[in-house]
Request: fold
Amino acid sequence: MSPGQALMRVDELADSSAVVVYLDQYASLIVTRRGDAIAAFRNKCPHAGYPLQHADGRVVVQEGRYMVCSAHGASFGLMDGACAGGPCNGDGLERVAVVVRDGVVCVA
Ligand code: FES
Reply:
């Protein structure tokens, strides 16, 4: 992951959603959107280190506000990654700074 690295187009990201973006064969980020706000997090649950998505690649977003880990159900704020419940012991997702340039979400 390097500054300026393009992750995805903003218009590919629905409002109140979270998608997985692969950086390479092993590492991925979750990019989230609410309205015009965009955020990104390392795709590694602080509970046991699993990625959040289900086998079909989908990241579950509940009530438009929480991402839910597919492994054991920890939930995290969509835009701040803070623990919102479950077995993550108050630990949140690690945030990754991003910027939007010409409609593209990039690593800051
Ligand atoms: S690894 Fe996410 S809740 Fe256990």
